[in-house]
Amino acid sequence: MDFQLTADEQAFRSEVRDFFKRELTPEVWKAHRDATEQSMWSAEFTKAFRRKLGTAGYIGMGWPKEYGGGGRNRIYQTILWDEMEYHRAPGIDRSVTYIPNAMIAFGSEAQKTEFLPKMVRGELTWFVGYSEPDAGSDLASLKTKAIEEGDHFVITGQKAFSSDAHMADYGWVATRTDATFTKHHGLTMFIVDMKSPGVTVTKYPTLAGWTHHAVHFDNVRVPKSMMVGERNQGWKVVMGAIDFERAALASAGLVNYQLDRLLAWCAQEREGSAALLEDPLVRDDLVRLAIEAETGKLMSYWLASLHAKGLRPQHETSLALLVKRETARRFDAAGLELLGQFAPLRAGSPAAALGGEVEVEYRDHLYFQFAAGGFDITRNVVATRGLGLPR
């Protein structure tokens, strides 16, 4: 395997890196920071920045040209996600990553024609309606119903952990269309206009301080034309979309940012004491973390190379995401340890180290252990699908 980017790919990385440095200055961050949002950016700025990404031609580089995409391979797409995550840019979410790819794979021609050109311009925000109060990791137990009535389906139920639902234009919603089936059978995916009568979005605070949302569907009428894939075959669509999701979430941008931030902190000399990097035990810990961060980066681009060949990796995406998120959690723990007595101070406290970023990330990244599959479930996926082990 060639682990090097081509000259054009390297030039593209430099281009997007300069773009984010220019657009996301400390002044911009301060003006549009919103700790109640999961991304820490205000909803208005997130939408505006996504449109700016679209104008710059950065969304959909790996999509077919007939739908407004750039027709490039997935390496470029991964470079963009990598740099967006590193610079903590808003808008790197399902609206530009895995929903478009899932729509290309499973959507009807009419759906692709209607939605993809708008998405490539950054004009649409989506939420994913998978999890429910009684169906999280065991997603196949979902109970939200979709009942056929003429040329519509009527959806009733509730979705939980609905990231960005409060700002979404559309929902990518998994439902049960045949109650005679159980678990993975009888499920169907729909595109739901969030302005439809009967859609209600509620909110609740998280441990990290940002606001999460739930979506309630009360007899919401959805045209049959908004059904994604075949009726009662929604599990195939869900699993395909989740593979695209995990590939996007496996981006190494976060852990590389955590590494660089921690290295800079440890290199600083402080009054009356040498820099932490002078301590061989600290250097040993940082080297181990750097190796793990590099491993995550290589796995992310390995996935991109598989997609670039026209393949559709499955258990590989789970493995890459597991490595990335477990590495991020180790950075969280190492950061609190190396920052010492000031580590628990939160943002806004005068003595907070690194602006309180490490502290809030430690609380925020707790969801890494269960969201998008969770660590243990992801290991089971790799074991059964990848290694062929028995259940």
| Strand order, largest beta sheet | 1-4-5-8
Strand content: 5-15%
Number of strands: 8
Q: Poorly predicted ranges (pLDDT <50, ≥5 residues)?
A: none
> How do the SSEs run, as a string of H and E?
HHHHHHEEEEEEEEHHHHHH
Indicate the mean pLDDT: 92
Structural class by secondary-structure content: alpha+beta
What is the helix tally? 12
Computed Rg: 21 Å
The N- and C-terminal alpha carbons lie at a distance of: 32 Å
Mind describing the biggest β-sheet?
Answer: 4 strands, mixed
Characterize the overall form: globular
Helix amount:
40-55%
General description of the model:
The protein has 391 residues and is an alpha+beta fold. Helices cover 45% and strands 14% of the residues. The protein is built from twelve helices and eight strands. The chain has helices at 7-23, 26-32, 43-55, 74-86, 98-106, 109-120, 234-249, 253-267, 280-308, 315-339, 357-364, 375-386; strands at 126-129, 145-149, 152-159, 170-176, 187-193, 199-205, 211-223, 227-228. The strands form two sheets. Strands 1-4-5-8 form a four-stranded mixed β-sheet. It has a four-stranded antiparallel β-sheet with strand order 2-3-7-6, with no helix packed on it. A hairpin with a 2-residue loop joins β2 and β3 (152-159). α5 (98-106) runs antiparallel to α7 (234-249) and α8 (253-267) runs antiparallel to α9 (280-308). The longest helix is centred in the C-terminal third of the chain and has 29 residues, at 280-308. The radius of gyration is 21 Å and the shape is globular. The two termini are 32 Å apart. The model has no long low-confidence stretch (mean pLDDT 92).
